[in-house]
Amino acid sequence: MALIISDECINCDVCEPECPNGAISQGAETYEIDPDKCTECVGHYEEPQCQQVCPVDCIATNPDRVENKDQLMAKFLKLTAQKG
């Protein structure tokens, strides 16, 4: 699954630089995660880095974007191919 940031976000700015895919950006009210770029850090790390650094625990799995590890890895491979 891609991740999603809830409205409990305090805009602390710590998650955005931790995302290896550049999926996190400032939205109108809070930070947002682009589900097309979020791989839950599959391909980069064992755990989603944004969740690890979030001080208010407001980043959860997005129930509207159910993806398994294989699908997340395929997305990672596609994203890294586009960068190269």
What does this structure look like?
- The chain has 84 residues and is α+β, with helices and mostly antiparallel strands.
- The chain has a single domain, classed as Alpha-Beta Plaits, CATH 3.30.70.
- 24% of the residues lie in helices and 14% in strands.
- The protein contains two helices and four strands.
- A two-stranded antiparallel ribbon has the order 1-4.
- The longest helix is centred in the C-terminal third of the chain and has 15 residues, at 69-83.
- The chain is globular, with a radius of gyration of 12 Å.
Task: Estimate the helix proportion, in percent.
Answer: 10-25%
Biggest sheet: strands side by side, in what order?
A: 1-4
- Radius of gyration over all CA atoms, rounded: 12 Å
* Strand coverage percent: 5-15%
CATH top level class name: Alpha Beta
H and E order: EEEHEH
How many domain regions? 1
Most strands sheet: 2 strands, antiparallel
